[in-house]
Amino acid sequence: MTYLGDVFSIKWMEDTDREAVMNETLEKQFEIVRKETKTSHVLQWGERSLSKMKVGEFVGTKQSPPSSYGPFEDISDPCLESSVAAPDVPLSIFLRNKEDADDLIGLDFWTNQVKELQKNRTFVESRMAEIVKVMTGDKDLTAEMMSDRHHVIRDYNCHQQATNAWNDICFDLALNPYAMRMVHTIVNLCEHGFSASEFTTTAHSVCTHHGITGIQ
């Protein structure tokens, strides 16, 4: 199985193909693509003063015939129907290979791959949960901090220092991509008044495992 692009990229290309790019502004395109992208948070970056410029000034003026470039209703959108969240691509590949296995040896192999991946992910989650539990001392607050509810980052120093601690003490983020999925918890902690020094101290006591790599 091959994954050729993310939903945001495809929606951007669909919009560019169907719109009159010399009339459409970057701002309008951003709003359209953000509305159509259902699987991730679309944000603006860079020099926002460029938003009034025309898309065609960046992609050229040649226009394709607007045949089948959407927009599509969610229920019939081929992009959304086949999309997989980027962090779940490894698991999706393992599950598909398991389904396609044509003998017991292959089935056992891919079943074990799925189990190992899920076990490793659970371990990452358990380390963050233990850190939060020690810091908060409260079961309900731990669940709230672990929830995937995103806060606006205001305390950048806390966020950066605590994330560095998570990377340096617990899981190298470059070598364990799944550990990135726990960073929202650090945002929650920092925005609820917990400090980076508390996180760092607790991480030292919780993350006593040896160096681990390859947790996807």
UniProtKB/TrEMBL annotation:
GO biological-process terms attached to the record: proteolysis involved in protein catabolic process; vacuolar protein processing
CDD domains: legumain_C
GO MF, one annotated term: cysteine-type endopeptidase activity
Pfam families referenced in this protein's UniProt entry, alphabetically: Legum_prodom, Peptidase_C13
Membrane-crossing segments per the record: none
Annotated Legumain prodomain domain residues: 113-207
Cited InterPro entries: Legum_prodom, Legumain_prodom_sf, Peptidase_C13
GO CC terms of this entry: vacuole
Top-level taxon of origin: Eukaryota
Stated family: Belongs to the peptidase C13 family.
Designated name of the protein: Legumain prodomain domain-containing protein
Organism, as annotated: Scylla olivacea
